[in-house]
Amino acid sequence: MQKIGVFVCWCGSNIAATVDVSKVAGAVREEPDVVFASDYSYMCSEAGQLMIQNAIKEKGLTGIVVCSCSPRMHEATFRKAAQAAGLNPYMVEIANIREQCSWIHKDKEEGTKKAILLAKAAIAKVRFNEPLTSGETPVTKRALVIGGGIAGIQTALDIADAGFEVDIVEKSPTIGGKMAQLDKTFPTLDCAACILTPKMVDAAAHEKIRLFTYSEVEKVKGFVGNFTVDIRKKARSILEEKCTGCGACTEKCPSKKTGNEFNERLDNRTAIYIPFAQAIPNIPSIDREACIHFKTGKCGICQKTCGVGAIDFDQQDEMITRKYGAIVAATGFQPISLERFDEFQYSKSPDVITSLELERLMNAAGPTKGELIKPSNRKHPSDMVFVQCVGSRGESCREKSYCSKICCMYTAKHAMMIRDKYPDINVHVFYIDVRTPGKNFDEFYRRAVEDYGVDYRKGMVGKVMEQKDGKLLVQASDLLTGEQLLLHTDMVVLATAIEPDKSARPLATMLTASMDTNDFFTEAHPKLRPVESPTAGIFLSGTCQGPKDIPETVAQAGAAAAKVIGLLSRKKLLNNPQVAKAEERLCSGCSGCSKVCPYGAIDYEVREIWDHGVRKTRRIAVVNEAVCQGCGACTVTCPSGAMDLRGFTAKQIMAEVDAICR
Amino acid sequence: MVYSYYPGCTLKAKAKKLDRYARDCAQIFEIELEEIEDWQCCGGVYPGMADELATRLSPVRALREAGDKKQDLVTVCSACHHVLKRVNEDVKTSGEIRRKINAYLEPENGYEGETKVIHYLELLRDRIGFDRIREKVKQPLNGKKIAPYYGCLLLRPYEVMNFDDPENPSIMEEFLLAIGAKPVHYALKNECCGGYVTMEDEEFASKKSSSIMEAAMDRGAEGMITACPLCKYNLENGGLKDGIPVYYFTELFAEALGVKEQEEET
Amino acid sequence: MREEILWISGVNPLKCMKCGKCTASCPAFEKMEYHPHQFVEMVQNNHITPLLESESQYYCMSCLVCEERCPRGVKPQKLIEAVQVLKLRASEGNRLKPQDVANRLDPSLPQQALMAAFRKYSR
Questions:
Q1: How do A426-431 and A318-324 pair as beta strands?
Q2: What domains are defined for chain C?
Q3: Which residues contact A642 (CB under 8 A, 6 or more apart)?
Q4: Which burial class, exposed, middle or buried, applies to B107 when counting CB atoms under 10 A from its CB (0-12, 13-18, 19+)?
Q5: Which of B:191-250 have CB within 8 Å of C?
Q6: Is the Cβ of C117 closer than 8 Å to some Cβ of chain A?
Q7: Domain A580-646: which topology?
Q8: pLDDT digits (tens, 9 = 90+) for A274-302
Q9: Which of A338, A343, A399, A469 to mutate against chain B (most B CBs within 10 Å)?
Q10: Can you name the CATH fold of A334-499?
Q11: Chain A residues near any Cβ of chain C (below 8 Å)
């Protein structure tokens, strides 16, 4: 025998203005199983909640319906109130008569009729509610950060400082990422390496942080609080415990033809190499594709040179398996390929470069020791043109649709630095808009224009043509004067769009974390939950979630760390009990459900079941209740109806429909 | 292997060489270019407006004939290629144009854009292959420095023409390498020669063309190749003193394959 | 008239982000009074009469560099062609008449040139 209580909220005038709330309460009082119905001005207030709790206790209610605002607002509030009064929190149903009724209709009579129907539907549903209990899972007190750039390093440091163990997995031989390649950073123009390397050292020295460099994540299994990850530690061919980082091997290596990735291939490196002077760990790696020994069996000079016998040509990749409670994606970005943008002659002229290549040219540790010279003839340039938005903000198949966010600021930075160091060089910037929204950003750009005389032109470059005398002819438009300009310039710098690192998409598949069409990881809510993936236990840090500059990256890295700390500090995790479950007698093991599950929550096991008195062995779908988010995709897909969603069973939904249609 | 072939009006009159050599060279690779029986001039320019019907009819007639024979349609002239391919795309994508044209022409089998239009150079690259061509070359061009001139109509709009990268094309360079010449890169190889504007303002078109030829000469080119009779006319009409010769690409092809006969200028 | 131009050309001028790449690439810039980006802006703002009265349209070579390089898919050449077509349909005389080309008929002029010019400059 059920005893249902119905509570209709006025929500001040939000509901009461368009719905006659006392009429609603009166109408449902006569419904079968309803033993109590009332209305009140603010049901979510302390007084309102007390009213509910008293009714539960005095009338011995077995289920309640609250007709109020959206469940997204106060479902949790009313569940807690019910629980405090001794009623299972899942015996609570909400009828949304605000967002779905009073706020969208104007006619009171119609609104009231609709509210009554919604209330009746909720009553029909709650009749079939079952008391549910959240399951509990333990939490492994260790976090995994995938990516060792500034985002990954900052997140790891914050988590480690809170007392938890963190592993950083980084695919290149050193941590540091793109920030290590930068010269100066806006808007303060401090040296990137000077502010980054102390953090890199902290990360290496921290007792709670373990670095896995030259390593990649290969497999991820498990669920929030209980991930098991296989990491491939690639063979550097160096015995790390013996190596002292003296660098003698790199000086003697005869293979010098490989493009140096750290300098954007503007110069070459040896086959055995340390990426840059402040690399951490300060241990070389052998690039086996470039190494003469690995290709022909000869050479081996490095091994002979090494004073401590640290070179090991027979070293193999190592597979390591570790357990984690939380995983943070911090895989970063790369500039797009410019092969479809040859109106700028990037593939044909060495004097047409990307902004990242310019960073290396201007950096004192770069290929030209910080002297800005033309790559074609190593002479001093007298004129330079910057082109903005190359590959960004476009709709054609060669472009990205989004704005890459950092280019307006870094071009202003480049222009200003060049004018400061070499006042004889004329610098022109062709822009569509100048986007400088951060703190002190617009003032920074105005300094470039007003104090340093950078020539900003609103317009675009149409074509770049190489001239007989080695200079470049730039054909561009100035929309404010209405001219088509022909500039004789020495170098053209292209502000190239940025896109997520290539490793992001395969990683998203491994984590079952969602991604948008541009391969950026999607956040759980664009405004209110920017550092969490919708997949429980996965967090996002840095540009892998969207283009951003260093201040924003560091802020987001800290936010992700805070969320991880919150997760890891829990003794155990309570999961949402409104999850899917397969009725084993109906399940045929067809695998339809696991194929549509966006969270990878469904697995299969072979079980012995009693079916109509016969013992049978069948492959049955099993839902991992900690991972299941209750989306219901599996229930719709299931051809036999074996899969059902607790709290939203087929029976409950049909009862609601019947109540409305009656 | 037989392909339907659309020569276009100019190839039959003022640009006979472009046509003759194309067919002769195709024979070497056992390819027969079967001329469309009932073709008319394509119009020279693509009629871009949505309500134009009459100007789209002659391209569709040629396309339909090729479609009826279930053959791909090969073109040599850049302008014809551009018009035919784009009208074909219109029939494929615009329901209104497709209905109106079919209603007017009343073809036996309705035409819905099934025919594939390919340019002679695509035939060389995709159906024959430049390696096979290299093998058949009897008189390679001895590293002669030739600047390929693509012009506009083969390359743009890339979405429809799908011929080669519009800013960094390489099909003509590969062709030149296959026949033993040395391709010369210059930035203006895909800039407009002036096209039909020569009839409106001859001086301006000449200015455009002469800067293209000049850019090629600055890079050491000894000659240029093109696939379009109007481009050839404009480049030669550029008025440059000591300009370099402009060849149809099929002429150099025939020379390399050893099928070019000595003949008087028409 | 704006509606007719937009319909026959199929262009959506709202897509334009006013970057100026079309005008930067246009080989006919020096001969045009109104440039590709201005055609887009003026058609959008219904400022069409000056475009009709100007000679700019006749210098468009239909080279399609503006269409190819535009990051937003605006196709300015189609707008220029639409203005040209509407003007020719409305006017009584054609811009190019047979007697105008009499002196150009040298043996090397390909008929393709005549065909294309008459298609573009007369009804």
A1: unpaired
A2: 2-91 (1.10.1060.10), 94-123 (no CATH)
A3: A582, A583, A584, A585, A586, A587, A588, A621
A4: middle
A5: 191-192, 194-202, 204, 208, 228-230, 232-233, 236-237
A6: no
A7: Alpha-Beta Plaits (3.30.70)
A8: 999 999 999 999 999 999 999 999 999 99
A9: A343
A10: FAD/NAD(P)-binding domain (3.50.50)
A11: 343, 389, 393-396, 399, 432, 458-463, 475-479, 482, 484
pLDDT value, residue B266: 43
b/e sequence C48-65, b meaning 16+ C-beta within 10 Å: beebeebebbbbbbbbbb
Q: Position of tokens 């995938």?
A: A146
Residue whose tokens read 């009140």: A40
**Position A220: which residue type?**
V
Residue span(s) of chain A under CATH 3.30.70.3270 come to: 580-646
- Residue A345: closest CA among C49, B162, B168, C26: B168
Q: Are the Cβ atoms of B200 and C78 closer than 8 angstroms?
A: no
Q: Kindly indicate whether the domain formed by A4-126 is annotated with CATH number 3.40.50.
A: yes
Nearest neighbour of B13 by CB, restricted to C27, C28, C111: C111
Nearest residue in chain C measured CA to CA from A399? C71
Measure the CA–CA gap between A49 and A43, rounded to whole angstroms. Answer: 6
Dist CA A362 CA A447 (whole Å): 20
Looking at the whole model, is its pTM more than 0.90?
no
The pLDDT score that the predictor gives to residue A320 is: 97
Residue A260 has pLDDT above 80, yes or no: yes
Q: Which of C69, C70, C74, C75 to mutate to test the interface with A (most CBs of A within 10 A)?
A: C69
ipTM value for the complex: 0.94
Cis amide prior to A281 (ω within 30 degrees)? yes
C98: pLDDT strictly greater than 90: no
Using the Cβ of C19 and the Cβ atoms of chain B, whether some distance falls under 8 Å is answered with no
CATH class of the region A142-234+317-332+501-568: alpha beta
In terms of CA atoms, which chain B residue is nearest residue C100? B199
Which chain C residue has the Cα nearest residue A388? C19
Give the containing element (helix H, strand E) for B65. helix B54-68
Cβ within 8 Å of residue A114, ≥6 positions away? A97, A101, A105
* Interface check B162 vs A, CB under 8 A: no
Domains of chain B: 2-120 (1.20.1050.140), 139-257 (3.40.50.11810)
**Contact between C71 and A477 using a beta-carbon 8 Å cutoff:** no
SS3 call for C30:
helix
For residue C68, the chain A residue with the least C-alpha distance is: A396
All partners of chain A with 3 or more CB pairs under 8 angstroms = B, C
